[in-house]
Write a structure and sequence with these properties.
Structural class of chain A: alpha/beta
Keywords (chain A): ATP-binding, Chloroplast, Ligase, Mitochondrion, Nucleotide-binding, Plastid, Protein biosynthesis
Pfam family, one (chain A): Amidase
Oligomer: heterodimer
InterPro entries (chain A): Amidase, Amidase_CS, Amidase_dom, AS_sf, GatA
Largest sheet of chain B: 2 strands, antiparallel
CATH class of chain A: Alpha Beta
Shape of chain A: globular
Catalytic activity (chain A): L-glutamyl-tRNA(Gln) + L-glutamine + ATP + H2O = L-glutaminyl-tRNA(Gln) + L-glutamate + ADP + phosphate + H(+)
Number of strands of chain B: 2
Strand content of chain A: 5-15%
GO molecular function (chain A): ATP binding; glutaminyl-tRNA synthase (glutamine-hydrolyzing) activity; hydrolase activity, acting on carbon-nitrogen (but not peptide) bonds, in linear amides
Radius of gyration of chain B: 24 Å
Distance between the termini of chain B: 48 Å
Strand order of the largest sheet of chain B: 1-2
Radius of gyration of chain A: 22 Å
Order of helices and strands of chain A: HHEHEHEHEHEEHHEHEHHHHEHHEEHH
Number of strands of chain A: 11
CATH superfamily of chain A: Amidase signature (AS) domain
């Protein structure tokens, strides 16, 4: 039963009638082995949280305690978080929310929703280290705009998550502090660089989380951890407060256990910000005059037509299902393509010329830009200082002491590529390759509504496997970097399993859309997800807890 | 000229195979390692001839430019890895990029805010983060040295 409350302006965005099952999140069915069929597909935790709170089925404090219990049980095994606040602070926020609900006050659309934030996104009331010793203990004097907006809409920030230092890495092993484990197999990596944020959502330690995606750092961990990862169009979400790695490529992205949740979080944090000169004024395609249209995409499968995606042209990128990609991944993507066809789409293979050039171009651009961006960490105005009698030595020692090896190497490579005499050979050529890649995507998206590919060439690999071989690690980014070069939005959702671990390892499908076309991606992704005849993507580590 | 052309073509092929070999499953790592060695040799030779004007990276000099004091051990550890990646970057030399405009970033509008100063409300928190502060100065060691 839905209580009728006075709905304030933010709430009016939500349909008054919740069109799908309103079971609260903690009555999920027990996860079953990867080969079985259909417990109900995931629906929106955010919307069911809202329903539970407004109908007084549960209190915000109850929901918080339930998540914190699970977090405390799983965290020693996962190590997703670099910082967890005092639980009494969080309970105070939850209690305050419960009082406001009881008093009939307006509460925002993210009220009571637990959000984890990647530690390279600034939070004023919690340390923000960027995964680096050079910022160990640093407390920013401001919140990132994305965090500020989520909090204004009622979200509770449950902690700061682990990452590869400054976003440089694909495994989260590059953190200066700890290695996060994959909830599906504790001996495997969660992916990177937003591994902590992905693992936290995967293990239901929180409801949704924020990450950053510069070359795939939201999408690849989403694939490895079996959750939904959404990278918005460059310029959709303000980068103010995101510690800059490569300014022309960085984006803040969202993780959720369903497409709807990732989409609702994105909606909350998007929009122009005067503190980010690259943030767009363009009215997103999902904020129209008739705002409820956005959420009305997330309807229950029972209301779908028989071919709900009829007429949609899907392009499968040929270069992503060939040599060098795991057979299990290729098979999962082909199954996904068949699923699209069942939904009424026409699926064709499309070739993106120069696809493979994107990887070296990306690493040239990213290393170069990072060498410039990380020059601010000099131990003078913030961060950890190693004192020396001369300024140059102070810089040199503070940075040598504070940065890890991968960061040092990328700074050195970037310094080389930008050196006088080399700029034309490397950086400029990489920018030209960027133009070629952008144009090839534009052309492909003229002939197709969305493009699909795997999010990674393999499932999650073992911790330590790629540690000493930079090129082997970089090679895994082949599926994701071109999207950053082109600045396009992309959604990754779990579409199947391969063997490994105790219950299989998840595989993510990447869907790429036209610039500012997030609404279409979310609409299509939601339909794909809700009709997928497969199991819930709930990792075995929490299966029992979820069932009880 | 034909000879150099052939080497350039060969270089592109070897780069593509090189990248491809890294995309294979790690179960094949032993054979990849051998392949890698062979390809590395071929590549460094060809990259010298296609980019003969570019000196290979001098890690100590780069470290000085980047203001990072590396230990000799670190220099020894990083140099081959950096060399390997820079070589791999070199494959862009073989691409025909004439008349392609460089893109700084994806298409965005130029949204500058008004050039009006504002007061920052959390000055104390900002000052609190400074490692070495003596009101009202941020303390630094001497800037000029004799050498």
């Amino acid at each position: 039963m839905i209580l009728t409350l006075q709905t304030p302006r933010p709430l009016s965005r939500l349909p008054r009638f919740l069109p799908f099952s309103t079971n609260a999140s903690i009555t999920l069915n027990q996860s079953q082995p990867a080969t079985c069929t259909s417990p109900p597909p995931p629906h929106s935790q955010i919307l069911s949280t809202r329903h539970s709170l407004l109908s007084r089925q549960f209190s915000a404090a109850d929901l918080l305690r339930s998540h914190l219990n699970r977090l405390n049980l799983t965290e020693p095994h996962l190590r997703s978080f670099l910082h967890l606040p005092d639980p009494s602070d969080l309970l105070a926020q939850a209690d305050s929310l419960d009082r406001r609900i009881a008093a009939g006050e307006d509460v925002g659309p993210l009220a009571g929703v637990l959000v984890a934030v990647k530690d390279n996104i600034c939070t004023a009331d919690m340390p923000s280290t960027g995964g680096s010793r050079i910022l160990e203990g640093y407390r920013p004097p401001f919140d990132a705009t994305a965090v500020k907006r989520a909090k204004e809409l009622g979200a509770i920030v449950v902690g700061k998550t682990n990452l590869d230092e400054f976003g440089m890495g694909s495994t989260t092993e590059g953190s200066a502090f700890q290695v996060t484990a994959n909830p599906w197999d504790l001996s495997r990596v969660p992916g990177g660089s937003s591994g902590g944020s992905a693992a936290a959502v995967s293990a239901r330690q929180c409801v949704v989380s924020l990450g950053s995606d510069t070359g795939g750092s939201v999408r690849q961990p989403a694939s490895f951890c079996g959750v939904v990862g959404l990278k918005p169009t460059y310029g959709r979400v303000s980068r103010f407060g995101l510690m800059a790695y490569a300014s022309s490529l960085d984006t803040i992205g969202c993780f959720g256990s369903s497409v709807a949740d990732a989409g609702i979080l994105l909606h909350a944090i998007s929009g122009h910000d005067r503190f980010d000169a690259t943030s767009s004024n363009q009215i997103p395609k999902f904020i129209s005059q008739d705002v409820p249209n956005f959420l009305s995409h997330f309807v229950s499968a029972s209301s779908f037509e028989s071919k709900p995606l009829k007429g949609l042209r899907v392009g499968l990128i040929r270069e992503t299902i060939g040599d060098g990609v795991d057979a299990g991944v290729i098979s999962a993507i082909h199954s996904a393509a068949s699923h699209f066809e069942e939904l009424g789409c026409s699926v064709n293979e499309v070739s993106l010329p120069s696809f493979s050039l994107g990887l070296p171009a990306y690493y040239i651009l990213a290393s170069s830009e990072s060498s410039s961006n990380l020059s601010r960490y000099d131990g003078i105005r913030y961060g950890n200082q190693v004192y020396a009698d001369e300024l140059d030595s102070l810089y040199g020692s503070s940075r040598a002491n504070g940065f890890g090896s991968e960061v040092k190497m990328r700074i050195l490579m970037g310094t080389y590529a930008l050196s006088a005499g080399y700029y034309d050979a490397y950086y400029k050529r990489a920018q030209q390759v960027r133009t070629i890649i952008r144009n090839s995507f534009t052309e492909a998206l003229n002939q197709n509504d969305i493009l699909i590919s795997p999010a990674a060439p393999s499932p999650a690999y073992k911790i330590g496997e790629k540690k000493n071989d930079p090129l082997a690690m970089y090679a895994g980014d082949i599926m994701t970097v071109n999207v950053n070069l082109a600045g396009l939005p992309a959604l990754v959702l779990p579409c199947g399993f391969v063997e490994g671990g105790t219950a299989g390892l998840p595989i993510g499908l990447q869907m790429i859309g036209a610039a500012f076309g997030e609404e279409e991606l979310l609409r299509v992704g939601h339909i794909f997800e809700q009709t997928l005849e497969n199991c819930r993507f709930v990792p075995p580590i929490i299966a029992e807890d979820i069932a009880s | 000229m034909g000879g150099v052309g052939a080497m350039v073509k060969g270089a592109s092929y070897s780069y593509a195979v090189f990248c491809g070999s890294f995309l294979r499953s790690p179960r094949l790592s032993f054979s990849i390692h051998n392949k890698k060695k062979k390809l590395l040799k071929f590549r460094s030779f060809s990259s010298k001839s296609t980019c003969s004007s570019l000196q290979p990276p001098d890690v100590s000099r780069l470290a000085k430019t980047a203001q990072i004091s590396l230990t000799p051990d670190e220099i020894e550890e990083f140099a081959p890895k950096i060399q390997q990646v820079i070589d791999w970057f070199g494959q862009l030399q073989d691409v025909d990029l004439q008349s392609v405009e460089p893109s700084i970033r994806a298409e965005t509008e130029n949204n500058l805010r008004d050039n009006v100063p504002e007061t920052f409300d959390h000055r104390d928190a900002m000052i609190g983060a400074v490692p070495s502060y003596e009101d009202p100065y941020i303390k630094v060691p001497r800037v000029l040295s004799m050498d």
